[in-house]
Amino acid sequence: MREELIVSGRSNPLIDPHLEIWEWQIPAYLFLGGLAAGILFFAGLFYLRGREDKYPTAVRVAPVFVPVLLAIGLLFLFLDLKHKFYFWRLYTSFSIESPTSWGAWTLLLVMPLSVIWAALYIESVFPKWDWKYTWAKDAIKFLSGYKREMAWGMVVLAIILGIYTGILLSAFNARPLWNTSILGPLFLTSGLSTGAAFIVLLSKNKTERHAMGMIDLMLISIEVALIIHMFMGFKASTRVQIEAADMFLGGQFTATFWVFVFSLGLIVPAFLEFMETKGKRIPFYIAPSLVIFGGILFRFIMVHAGQLSRWLY
Amino acid sequence: MRYAMAIDTKKCVGCSDCVVACQTENNVPHGYARDWIIEVIDGTYPQLELEYRSERCNHCDNAPCVRCCPTGASFIADGGIVKVEHDKCIGCGACIAACPYDARFVHPEGYVDKCTFCDHRLEKGQDPACVAVCPTKCLYFGDMDDPNSEVSKVVKKRKFKTLIPEAGTEPQLYFLI
Question: What is the ipTM metric for this complex?
Answer without folding.
Answer: 0.89
